[in-house]
Amino acid sequence: MDNYLWWRDGVIYQIYPRSFADSNGDGLGDLPGIISRLDYLADLGVDGLWLSPIYPSPDKDFGYDVSDYCNVDPRYGSLADFDRLVAEAHALGLHLIMDMVMNHTSDQHAWFQESRSSQDNPKRAWYIWRDQPNNWQASFGGNAWEFDQATGQYYLHLFTKEQPDVNWRHPAVRQAQLEAFRFWMERGVDGFRLDVFNAYFKNPDLPDNPTKFGLRGFDRQRHIHDMDQPEILPLLNELRALLDSYPERYSVGETYLATPQKTVSYCGPDKLHAAFSFDFTSNDLNYPWNPGWIMQQIARREQTFNAAGVWPTSVMSNHDLPRAASRYCKGEEDAQARIAMALLLTLRGTPFMYYGEEIGMRDISLRRSEILDPPGRRYWPIYKGRDGCRAPMQWDASKNAGFSTARPWLPVHPDALQRNVTAQQANPDSLFHFTRKLLALRKAQPALRQGDYIPLEARPGTLAYLRRVPEQTVLLAINFKGRPAAFTPPDGKWQVLLSSQADPKDPAAALAPHEVRLLIKEE
Ligand code: GLC
User: Fold this and answer.
1) Whose CA is nearest to atom 12 of ligand 1?
2) Beta-carbon neighbour count of residue 5 at 10 Å?
3) Which positions ≥6 away from 426 have C-beta within 8 Å?
4) Which strands, in side-by-side order, build the sheet including 250-253?
5) Contact (Cβ atoms closer than 8 angstroms) between residue 55 and residue 105
6) Among 185, 319, 478, 523, fewest CB within 10 Å belongs to which?
7) Is the CB of 453 under 6 A from ligand 1?
């Protein structure tokens, strides 16, 4: 394949390690579990794996509260297991991305333990301490300042109170954090996902945020002082220089409160390689999953990313959101999940697939007493938290869906008896096979990877676009509705590449209900 670059042309698969595969029967997934499934991932056809945090953590935010950046939580395995994971992944052509959670540490991190030990401890200034709080709110609820009895000051935490924000303005913090990147690159890691990187720097004067209308305290503020400060840019330059001192390393940022404009401002040859803009995800109840709105979103991001010369990323699901299949599908019917998958894998940009998305896993529903996620516990029933999309991977129809021999940390979805990897592998019409075929087509057809995006005029209920390189054009047409829809491809000699319907037919035939059709024209 000509100049194939794994992070640009390939597909990245997000693993939530707690929920992927448990090798030692403690109900939690682990690194040896992931290693045992690498063949599966290579066969599926993805190019990179993003591991949600595997560092030692008291799990107040399930790994996103790190107590040691340069180690593996013993429940997930050891550094030796990690080295084996890197080696075995690389042997299969899979790249590995770590999740760097560096806006805050755990309150159990040695740095914070020292910082809170006294006002004149040398690490005091590694965190953000003040005599008086301002009006800032924590994203997971409540005031962003916690009073520390022992030393008589407040510390800042934009998430839970067990996640104190570090002071990135302190040169020693900056150096220590950059060392952690180096530590993992030395172990062979290929890249990083940066958790809420655009909140690293706060306005040094800590002024109050202006207020606005919103439901929760956090939403009732305009976040102009607690994130997106100019000092992040020189840091990204420095980080990029560090990454570029190793061959072919990658960085993708989780832009907090993302818009395409904000996202592209952090990307470029001397900044991040990419950042999320979350154009097709939302927690909103009335998320408008219809062709008109989707085409508008695509146009919006195409314009912004093209103008900035930045390569986009595509996301339908992740560990913070209700899964796309839960948002758009009715019951166990997978038609809309196929549509979401087709968009994910044919839009211009790097697709990020979330574990289980390839088999259309749905969110689990929990009783209030079962909820573990901090914002869910706080805001139930307005917001039930993120446990739903973090349920154990559904491997087969055995007990605990083949995830573990023990009771898993979160319940297995009751549909696992029918909806699992083994069952879908045996069924050529399954979402699994549809996904696998699409992944293979992306690899085979340059237009799908690198082609320009050209929208086609759509009829109500349908969507169509082209992806074009000089030597070939691929056309995607989708019928969102449950009745047939007329369809006429542009002039030319088209061939069917793939259809979600059983038998490939005439490229210009009417679209069947919910059909996804891919056509190709060679120039
Ligand atoms: C990011 C993560 C989320 C985590 C939060 C705090 O948004 O994706 O899971 O809770 O940061 O680290």
Assistant:
1) 64
2) 16
3) none
4) 274-275, 250-253, 191-194, 95-100, 48-51, 12-15, 350-354, 313-315
5) no
6) 523
7) no
Going by their DSSP bridges, the two strands 12-15 and 350-354 should be labelled as parallel
CB 390 within 8 A of CB 354: no
User: Considering all CA atoms of the chain, what is the largest pairwise distance in Å, rounded to the nearest integer?
Assistant: 76
Dist. CA 77 → ligand 1 center (Å)? 22
- Provide the whole-model pTM: 0.98
pLDDT at 1: 47
* Long-range contact set of residues 386-389: C-beta below 8 Å, sequence gap at least 24: 386/319, 386/320, 386/321, 388/322, 388/323, 388/326, 388/363, 388/364, 389/317, 389/318, 389/319, 389/320, 389/321, 389/322, 389/323, 389/326, 389/354, 389/363
Q: Using the mean position of ligand 1's atoms as its centre, give its distance from the Cα of residue 234 in Å.
A: 23
Whether residue 463 has its Cβ less than 6 Å from ligand 1: no
**Separation between Cα atoms, residue 469 and residue 472, nearest integer Å:** 5
Compute the residue count for the chain.
Answer: 523
Ligand 1 contacts CB of residue 196 (under 6 A): yes
What's the gap in Å between 196 CA and the centre of ligand 1? Answer: 7
Candidate from 194, 196, 352, 390 with most ligand 1 atoms within 8 A of CB, to mutate:
196
Burial level of 284, CB count in 10 A (0-12/13-18/19+)?
exposed
Task: Report whether residue 101 contacts ligand 1, using a CB cutoff of 6 Å.
Answer: yes
Q: Whose CA is nearest to atom 5 of ligand 1?
A: 64
CA of 106 to the centre of ligand 1 (A): 13
Element (H, E) at 520: strand 516-522
Q: Are 357 and 324 in contact (CB under 8 A)?
A: yes
* Catalytic positions, written as ranges: 195, 254
Of 10, 3, 2, 1, nearest in space to 274 by CA: 10
Give the pLDDT confidence of 281-335 residue by residue, as tens digits: 875 655 688 899 999 999 999 999 999 999 999 999 999 999 999 999 999 999 9
Per-residue pLDDT reduced to its tens digit, 40-96: 999 999 999 999 999 999 999 999 999 999 999 999 999 999 999 999 999 999 999
The token pair at 297 is: 């979103």
Q: How far is CA 258 from the centre of its chain?
A: 13
What separation in Å is there between the alpha carbon of 318 and the centre of ligand 1?
11
Residue 503 has pLDDT above 80, yes or no: no
Q: What is the pLDDT of residues 440-494, one digit of tens each?
A: 999 999 999 999 999 998 788 999 999 999 999 999 999 999 999 999 999 999 9
- In DSSP terms, 462 is beta-bridged to 479
- CA pair distance 81, 109, nearest whole angstrom: 23
Reported as a single tens digit per residue, the pLDDT across 360-377 is 999 999 999 999 999 999
